[in-house]
Amino acid sequence: MIDKTPAGVFRPKRAFTLVELLVVIAIIGILIALLLPAIQAAREAARRLECRNHLKQLAMGCIDHENVQKHYPTGGWSYKWNADPNCGYGRRQPGNWMFNILPWIEQRGLHDAAMGKTGTAKMSILTIGTQTVLPEFYCPTRRPAILYPQTQSQARTIPSNMNAFTVSSHTDYAGNAGIYAGNSPNMMSGSGNWFSPATGTDAVTVSITSWPDVNNKSSADYMNGILFYTSMVQIKDVRDGTAHTYLIGEKYMDPDHYMDSFGYDDDSPIFGGFDWDFYRWGVNPPMQDHRGYLSPTYDIFGSAHPGTFNMAFCDGSVHTISYDITQSTHQYLCDRNDGHATDASNY
To answer: Between the N and C ends of the chain, which has fewer C-beta atoms within 10 Å?
Structure first.
């Protein structure tokens, strides 16, 4: 047939039908649905790796501390105290393990800022220090490295050697305090007059001669972890082997309170003393963060990662541990000298 359409007459192209358009949209939706989990998994893998790197850095800080000071970082006094560089690195130091490793994680300036200072000048410097954000103390899967509200859980007060403040730096990592032994629960709850400083008391002037001997296995107050109240654990004390004993790891938190610092496990300033914010035990199983599970889970290890949490061991290695780890194995790894040297490959 001869096309008699006049030359130069425009013939419009055929458009998509509604059915074809819907099919294309459906295909795009399927592709997105397939790709999104893969993208999320890749991002979580990157965050998990960053978290492991943080723990590695902190663990090496603890080990370098032991090499120089001849003991792992001390665990400090109670939540009513804050760190003080004028008190050294042993039992006299009221601050926690994170403050004590600052010189070995390239933060000596922060650690020494109040060195030689007294009175209000020292209090001001210590207050500023506790509001310094250190990304290596946060897990990127859980929350950003920023300042968080300083709530002090209802009745708590600001440590006596600091000025009042409303925000402070926090942490997602905790030291291994072992399994409950001796007077651990009582010390954590703040019983004992050594936990009750008078207003304005300087830690340098406090006598510790009558305090419990938590480092001595023959003492009724003995603690069997690595980092705990006034601890001074040496490598030789880790009789199960440094490759078979937890040093530090990720702590459990309630997702409902990631950002508001509500609860006893996330309400203290970063360099405070022996408190649930900075120490965990193996007496209860680890758990992935769950909404609505706040108390009494403030004493357990865990994380925001699906399936597993990260733990650094006393030899500096970092292992990914399943939440399905047997409770007996978890306790063996928390106790430094129970006679059980569990192989890391079994976790």
So the answer is: N
pTM of the full predicted structure? 0.85
Q: Residue 343 burial (CB < 10 Å; 0-12/13-18/19+)?
A: exposed
What backbone phi and psi angles, to 5 degrees, belong to 31? -60, -40
Sign of CA dihedral 184, 185, 189, 194: negative
Beta bridge partners of 82: 272
Q: Where does residue 129 fall: left (phi above 0), alpha (psi -120 to 50 degrees), or beta otherwise?
A: alpha
How confident is the model over 123-158, as pLDDT tens digits?
A: 899 999 999 999 999 999 999 999 998 765 544 557
C-alpha distances (whole Å) from 261 to each of 67, 176, 294 are: 35, 22, 12
Q: What's the DSSP call for residue 73?
A: P
Rounded Cα–Cα distance for residues 184 and 108 (Å): 31
Whole-Å CA distances, 128 to 119, 125, 167, 202: 15, 5, 10, 18
**What pLDDT sits at residue 155?**
42
Q: Which residue has the higher pLDDT, 210 or 214?
A: 214
Give the C-alpha separation, 85 to 114, whole Å: 7
Q: Tokens at residue 112, please? A: 């020494």
Bridging pattern class, strands 246-250 and 279-280: unpaired
